[in-house]
Design a protein that fits this description.
The chain has 239 residues and is α/β, with parallel strands linked by helices. The chain contains 6 helices and 11 strands. It has 2 domains: 129 residues, NAD(P)-binding Rossmann-like Domain (Rossmann fold, 3-Layer(aba) Sandwich), CATH 3.40.50; 104 residues, 2-Layer Sandwich (Dihydrodipicolinate Reductase, domain 2), CATH 3.30.360. The strands form 2 sheets. It has a 6-stranded parallel sheet with strand order 2-1-3-4-5-11, with helices on both faces. 36% of the residues are buried. The structure holds nicotinamide-adenine-dinucleotide (NAD). The site of nicotinamide-adenine-dinucleotide (NAD) has 27 residues, from helix 1.
Protein backbone atom coordinates (compact mmCIF):
# COMPACT_ATOMS: atom_id res chain seq x y z
CA UNK A 1 0.00 0.00 0.00
CA UNK A 2 1.11 3.58 -0.66
CA UNK A 3 0.80 5.84 2.37
CA UNK A 4 0.94 9.64 2.72
CA UNK A 5 2.36 10.83 6.03
CA UNK A 6 1.11 13.95 7.80
CA UNK A 7 3.71 15.05 10.31
CA UNK A 8 7.34 14.01 10.12
CA UNK A 9 8.22 14.23 13.80
CA UNK A 10 8.95 11.41 16.24
CA UNK A 11 5.85 9.40 15.29
CA UNK A 12 5.96 10.20 11.57
CA UNK A 13 9.51 8.87 11.33
CA UNK A 14 8.61 5.70 13.26
CA UNK A 15 5.58 5.13 11.01
CA UNK A 16 7.88 5.46 7.99
CA UNK A 17 10.26 2.79 9.42
CA UNK A 18 7.46 0.38 10.33
CA UNK A 19 5.63 0.94 7.03
CA UNK A 20 8.68 -0.17 5.00
CA UNK A 21 9.19 -3.09 7.41
CA UNK A 22 5.62 -4.23 6.62
CA UNK A 23 6.15 -3.93 2.86
CA UNK A 24 4.41 -0.58 2.32
CA UNK A 25 5.67 2.57 0.62
CA UNK A 26 5.59 6.16 1.84
CA UNK A 27 4.55 8.06 -1.29
CA UNK A 28 4.36 11.59 0.18
CA UNK A 29 5.28 13.40 3.39
CA UNK A 30 3.66 16.64 4.60
CA UNK A 31 4.90 18.65 7.54
CA UNK A 32 4.54 22.21 8.78
CA UNK A 33 6.40 23.80 5.84
CA UNK A 34 4.83 21.61 3.16
CA UNK A 35 1.25 21.67 4.24
CA UNK A 36 -1.51 19.29 3.25
CA UNK A 37 -4.22 20.89 1.07
CA UNK A 38 -6.82 19.89 -1.55
CA UNK A 39 -4.13 20.67 -4.19
CA UNK A 40 -1.51 18.39 -2.62
CA UNK A 41 0.06 15.70 -4.77
CA UNK A 42 -0.17 12.52 -2.66
CA UNK A 43 1.55 10.48 -5.40
CA UNK A 44 -0.90 7.62 -5.52
CA UNK A 45 -1.37 7.24 -1.73
CA UNK A 46 -4.23 4.95 -0.72
CA UNK A 47 -4.32 6.16 2.88
CA UNK A 48 -3.08 8.98 5.09
CA UNK A 49 -1.49 8.47 8.50
CA UNK A 50 -1.41 11.60 10.63
CA UNK A 51 0.63 12.40 13.75
CA UNK A 52 0.79 16.21 13.94
CA UNK A 53 -0.22 18.81 16.51
CA UNK A 54 -3.85 19.28 17.53
CA UNK A 55 -4.32 22.72 15.89
CA UNK A 56 -4.26 21.45 12.29
CA UNK A 57 -6.14 18.20 12.75
CA UNK A 58 -9.68 19.08 11.69
CA UNK A 59 -8.49 20.85 8.54
CA UNK A 60 -6.35 17.82 7.59
CA UNK A 61 -9.28 15.48 8.12
CA UNK A 62 -11.44 17.63 5.81
CA UNK A 63 -8.71 17.66 3.16
CA UNK A 64 -8.36 13.86 3.33
CA UNK A 65 -12.14 13.53 2.82
CA UNK A 66 -12.01 15.96 -0.14
CA UNK A 67 -9.21 13.91 -1.69
CA UNK A 68 -11.19 10.69 -1.08
CA UNK A 69 -8.43 9.26 1.14
CA UNK A 70 -9.03 7.27 4.32
CA UNK A 71 -7.17 8.81 7.25
CA UNK A 72 -5.67 7.24 10.37
CA UNK A 73 -5.64 10.10 12.90
CA UNK A 74 -3.18 9.49 15.72
CA UNK A 75 -2.86 13.09 16.92
CA UNK A 76 -4.22 13.71 20.41
CA UNK A 77 -5.64 16.79 22.10
CA UNK A 78 -8.42 17.66 19.57
CA UNK A 79 -11.28 15.50 20.85
CA UNK A 80 -13.41 18.51 21.84
CA UNK A 81 -13.99 18.83 18.05
CA UNK A 82 -15.08 15.22 17.54
CA UNK A 83 -18.72 16.26 16.99
CA UNK A 84 -17.71 18.03 13.80
CA UNK A 85 -16.64 14.79 12.10
CA UNK A 86 -20.25 13.81 11.41
CA UNK A 87 -20.75 16.84 9.16
CA UNK A 88 -17.72 16.09 6.91
CA UNK A 89 -18.86 14.53 3.64
CA UNK A 90 -17.12 11.46 2.21
CA UNK A 91 -15.08 10.92 5.39
CA UNK A 92 -13.32 7.67 6.19
CA UNK A 93 -11.38 7.87 9.43
CA UNK A 94 -10.12 5.82 12.32
CA UNK A 95 -8.91 7.87 15.29
CA UNK A 96 -7.38 6.83 18.59
CA UNK A 97 -5.29 8.47 21.29
CA UNK A 98 -3.30 5.25 21.32
CA UNK A 99 -2.90 2.87 18.39
CA UNK A 100 -0.86 0.39 20.43
CA UNK A 101 -2.54 -3.00 20.44
CA UNK A 102 -0.92 -3.67 23.84
CA UNK A 103 -2.55 -0.53 25.27
CA UNK A 104 -5.88 -1.57 23.81
CA UNK A 105 -5.65 -4.89 25.67
CA UNK A 106 -4.41 -3.03 28.79
CA UNK A 107 -7.56 -0.90 28.64
CA UNK A 108 -9.66 -4.05 28.53
CA UNK A 109 -7.75 -5.44 31.53
CA UNK A 110 -8.35 -2.13 33.34
CA UNK A 111 -12.10 -2.43 32.73
CA UNK A 112 -12.10 -5.99 34.01
CA UNK A 113 -9.99 -5.07 37.06
CA UNK A 114 -12.28 -2.15 37.91
CA UNK A 115 -15.32 -4.40 37.61
CA UNK A 116 -13.68 -6.88 40.01
CA UNK A 117 -12.51 -4.24 42.48
CA UNK A 118 -15.66 -2.11 42.25
CA UNK A 119 -17.44 -4.20 44.87
CA UNK A 120 -14.53 -3.73 47.32
CA UNK A 121 -14.58 -0.10 48.49
CA UNK A 122 -11.63 -0.71 50.83
CA UNK A 123 -9.48 -0.65 47.66
CA UNK A 124 -8.76 2.94 46.69
CA UNK A 125 -7.58 3.54 43.13
CA UNK A 126 -5.05 5.79 41.35
CA UNK A 127 -3.78 6.32 37.83
CA UNK A 128 -0.36 7.73 36.98
CA UNK A 129 1.29 8.27 33.62
CA UNK A 130 4.85 9.15 32.52
CA UNK A 131 5.81 10.63 29.15
CA UNK A 132 8.84 12.33 27.59
CA UNK A 133 9.37 16.06 28.05
CA UNK A 134 8.36 16.85 24.43
CA UNK A 135 4.77 15.70 24.86
CA UNK A 136 2.39 18.57 24.16
CA UNK A 137 -0.68 17.45 26.11
CA UNK A 138 -1.01 16.47 29.75
CA UNK A 139 -2.60 14.24 30.96
CA UNK A 140 -2.20 11.89 28.01
CA UNK A 141 -5.24 11.02 25.90
CA UNK A 142 -4.72 7.42 27.02
CA UNK A 143 -4.83 8.43 30.70
CA UNK A 144 -8.12 10.25 30.10
CA UNK A 145 -9.56 7.18 28.41
CA UNK A 146 -8.37 4.89 31.25
CA UNK A 147 -9.77 7.31 33.84
CA UNK A 148 -13.12 7.20 32.05
CA UNK A 149 -13.09 3.37 32.11
CA UNK A 150 -12.27 3.38 35.85
CA UNK A 151 -14.96 5.91 36.67
CA UNK A 152 -17.57 3.93 34.74
CA UNK A 153 -16.78 0.77 36.67
CA UNK A 154 -15.89 1.88 40.21
CA UNK A 155 -19.07 2.81 42.11
CA UNK A 156 -17.05 4.47 44.91
CA UNK A 157 -15.46 7.00 42.49
CA UNK A 158 -17.55 9.76 40.95
CA UNK A 159 -15.09 12.30 39.58
CA UNK A 160 -11.50 12.73 38.39
CA UNK A 161 -8.85 15.14 39.64
CA UNK A 162 -6.10 15.67 37.04
CA UNK A 163 -4.30 18.27 39.14
CA UNK A 164 -2.45 18.49 42.41
CA UNK A 165 -4.77 17.94 45.33
CA UNK A 166 -4.52 21.06 47.46
CA UNK A 167 -5.67 19.65 50.76
CA UNK A 168 -7.20 16.33 51.68
CA UNK A 169 -8.63 14.57 48.66
CA UNK A 170 -12.28 13.52 48.61
CA UNK A 171 -12.34 9.68 48.78
CA UNK A 172 -14.81 9.63 45.88
CA UNK A 173 -12.27 11.40 43.64
CA UNK A 174 -10.02 9.40 41.34
CA UNK A 175 -6.58 11.02 41.37
CA UNK A 176 -4.91 10.96 37.94
CA UNK A 177 -1.40 12.39 37.78
CA UNK A 178 1.27 12.96 35.13
CA UNK A 179 5.05 13.18 35.09
CA UNK A 180 6.99 14.59 32.13
CA UNK A 181 10.55 13.32 32.16
CA UNK A 182 13.39 12.51 29.75
CA UNK A 183 12.54 10.27 26.81
CA UNK A 184 9.89 7.94 28.29
CA UNK A 185 7.73 6.82 25.30
CA UNK A 186 4.69 6.22 27.53
CA UNK A 187 3.97 4.43 30.82
CA UNK A 188 0.52 4.08 32.42
CA UNK A 189 0.09 2.64 35.87
CA UNK A 190 -3.13 1.82 37.73
CA UNK A 191 -3.13 0.83 41.37
CA UNK A 192 -5.74 -0.53 43.77
CA UNK A 193 -4.61 0.13 47.32
CA UNK A 194 -6.12 -1.29 50.51
CA UNK A 195 -4.92 -1.31 54.14
CA UNK A 196 -3.75 -4.90 53.52
CA UNK A 197 -2.15 -4.80 50.08
CA UNK A 198 -1.82 -3.19 46.67
CA UNK A 199 -2.48 -4.44 43.15
CA UNK A 200 -0.71 -2.62 40.29
CA UNK A 201 -1.33 -2.90 36.56
CA UNK A 202 1.32 -1.28 34.38
CA UNK A 203 1.77 -0.80 30.66
CA UNK A 204 5.24 0.28 29.56
CA UNK A 205 5.85 1.16 25.93
CA UNK A 206 9.44 0.18 25.00
CA UNK A 207 9.43 2.69 22.17
CA UNK A 208 7.12 4.13 19.53
CA UNK A 209 7.00 0.91 17.52
CA UNK A 210 3.71 -0.28 19.04
CA UNK A 211 1.91 2.99 18.23
CA UNK A 212 3.30 3.09 14.69
CA UNK A 213 2.68 -0.54 13.77
CA UNK A 214 -0.85 -0.32 15.25
CA UNK A 215 -1.55 2.76 13.11
CA UNK A 216 -0.30 0.98 9.98
CA UNK A 217 -2.39 -2.10 10.71
CA UNK A 218 -5.36 0.20 11.25
CA UNK A 219 -4.68 1.78 7.83
CA UNK A 220 -4.56 -1.68 6.20
CA UNK A 221 -7.92 -2.44 7.85
CA UNK A 222 -9.47 0.94 6.94
CA UNK A 223 -8.81 0.89 3.19
CA UNK A 224 -12.02 -0.02 1.34
CA UNK A 225 -14.33 1.07 4.19
CA UNK A 226 -16.34 4.29 4.62
CA UNK A 227 -17.32 6.02 7.85
CA UNK A 228 -15.98 6.91 11.26
CA UNK A 229 -14.21 4.24 13.30
CA UNK A 230 -12.35 3.77 16.56
CA UNK A 231 -9.98 1.09 17.86
CA UNK A 232 -13.02 -0.87 19.13
CA UNK A 233 -14.15 -1.45 15.54
CA UNK A 234 -10.66 -2.34 14.35
CA UNK A 235 -9.87 -4.67 17.27
CA UNK A 236 -13.30 -6.30 17.04
CA UNK A 237 -12.48 -7.48 13.52
CA UNK A 238 -8.86 -8.13 14.41
CA UNK A 239 -9.57 -10.46 17.38
N1 LIG B 1 -2.32 7.74 18.79
C1 LIG B 1 -1.14 7.26 19.19
O1 LIG B 1 -0.91 6.03 19.25
C2 LIG B 1 -0.04 8.24 19.54
C3 LIG B 1 1.23 7.80 19.93
C4 LIG B 1 2.24 8.74 20.15
C5 LIG B 1 1.97 10.09 19.98
N2 LIG B 1 0.70 10.48 19.63
C6 LIG B 1 0.35 11.87 19.36
O2 LIG B 1 0.82 12.17 18.04
C7 LIG B 1 1.10 13.56 17.94
C8 LIG B 1 2.50 13.78 17.39
O3 LIG B 1 3.43 13.23 18.29
P1 LIG B 1 5.00 13.29 17.96
O4 LIG B 1 5.66 12.74 19.17
O5 LIG B 1 5.29 12.71 16.62
O6 LIG B 1 5.22 14.88 17.92
P2 LIG B 1 6.41 15.68 17.20
O7 LIG B 1 6.37 17.04 17.80
O8 LIG B 1 7.68 14.90 17.25
O9 LIG B 1 5.95 15.74 15.67
C9 LIG B 1 4.87 16.48 15.21
C10 LIG B 1 5.17 16.87 13.79
O10 LIG B 1 3.98 17.47 13.23
C11 LIG B 1 4.40 18.62 12.50
N3 LIG B 1 3.25 19.52 12.45
C12 LIG B 1 2.75 20.29 13.43
N4 LIG B 1 1.69 20.98 12.99
C13 LIG B 1 1.51 20.62 11.70
C14 LIG B 1 0.58 21.00 10.69
N5 LIG B 1 -0.39 21.87 10.94
N6 LIG B 1 0.72 20.43 9.47
C15 LIG B 1 1.69 19.53 9.21
N7 LIG B 1 2.60 19.15 10.12
C16 LIG B 1 2.51 19.69 11.35
C17 LIG B 1 5.60 19.17 13.27
O11 LIG B 1 6.41 20.03 12.45
C18 LIG B 1 6.32 17.88 13.66
O12 LIG B 1 7.23 17.45 12.65
C19 LIG B 1 0.86 14.13 19.34
O13 LIG B 1 -0.46 14.64 19.40
C20 LIG B 1 0.98 12.91 20.24
O14 LIG B 1 0.27 13.05 21.45
C21 LIG B 1 -0.29 9.59 19.41
Amino acid sequence: MKIALLGYGRMGKEVERQAYARGHEISAIFDINDSFSPESDVRGAQAVISFVLAEGVLYHIKVAAQLGLPIVEGTTGWYDQLDQLKSIKNLTIIYSPNFSIGVYQFTKLTRYAAQLMGSLPEYDCFLHEFHHVGKADSPSGTAKKLAHVLLENLPHKDKVLYDTSHGVINPATLHVTSTRVGRVPGTHEIGFDSPADEIVLRHVAHGREGFASGAIRAAEWLVGKTGIYTMDDFMHDFN
